Amino acid sequence: MKSRKLRLRGTKHQEMTILLKTDEDVEKLTDVADAVQATEEKVQVVGFDSESELVDGWLFGAYGRVKLWVDSTLSDEVAKYEGVTNPMTHPDNRVWFDNDSRRLTQHGRIARLKMQNIDDN
């Protein structure tokens, strides 16, 4: 697994780490504020300094407390969840995550991950 940190300018925040899956590997990006699946193979990643970078891969999971959008494979809808902890894509095309001390699943792929602000409850 490759790992890298986005360039930041000394802001205080709650950390979100995302996992990107590529054909070869899983890459870990830390200090991410927002990440959106822009195309099938590209993710738009925004750091806390608002610098944006288009990277290869697809959103595979995250560590931390996040807002989660899942593009459903069962319908044309995008499901949104807040206060989610550690969402992860499993081989059966479901996203598993913890929400309010419960383990939940949603069929589909992660469409967006955004850091959950400490004040957001």
Features:
63% strand, 4-stranded mixed sheet, 121 residues, mainly beta, 12 strands, 0% helix, 8-stranded antiparallel sheet
Q: Helicity, in percent? A: under 10%
Q: What integer is the average pLDDT?
A: 86
Strand order of the largest sheet: 6-5-4-12-8-9-10-11
Low-confidence stretches: 7-12
Radius of gyration computed on alpha carbons:
14 Å
**Shape descriptor:** globular
Structural class: mainly beta
**Hey, roughly how much beta strand do the residues contain?**
over 45%
What kind of sheet is the major sheet?
A: 8 strands, antiparallel
Total count of helical runs of at least 4 residues: 0
| Strand segment count | 12
User: H/E order of the elements?
Assistant: EEEEEEEEEEEE
Distance between the termini: 32 Å
